[in-house]
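Hallway conversation turned thread

IA: we were arguing at lunch whether anyone had actually written out DUF397 domain-containing protein end to end. Turns out nobody had. So, for the record, here is the sequence (98 residues) and right after it the structure tokens. Reply here if something looks off.
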Amino acid sequence: MDQVHVYNGMPAKHLGTEGWAKPWSGPNGGACVEVMRLNDGRVALRQSTDPDGPALIYTHHEIEKFIQGAKAGAADFLLTRPENLTTSAGSAPERRAA
């Protein structure tokens, strides 16, 4: 990763293949967020199902505040789904009945 200009939205493959981790992996069929700590302290995030896709680059401070906020419950609203949401897995009532 020497001499690579790191910027938000860059192809994740330009950051290399080593050093990516899945700290939030779960029983979701392998689709999860992967993270990499960069040499300058920033953090890169990518979608595990698209490892060559774009990488989101965050400063240490941004990641720190995000994690603190998530731990404090500031992102809990992301865990609820609108009742009218339909996905390939079906509507919310259909998913609950499954």
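OS: looked through it. The radius of gyration is 16 Å.
IA: good, adding that to the notes. Helices lie at 60-71, 92-97.
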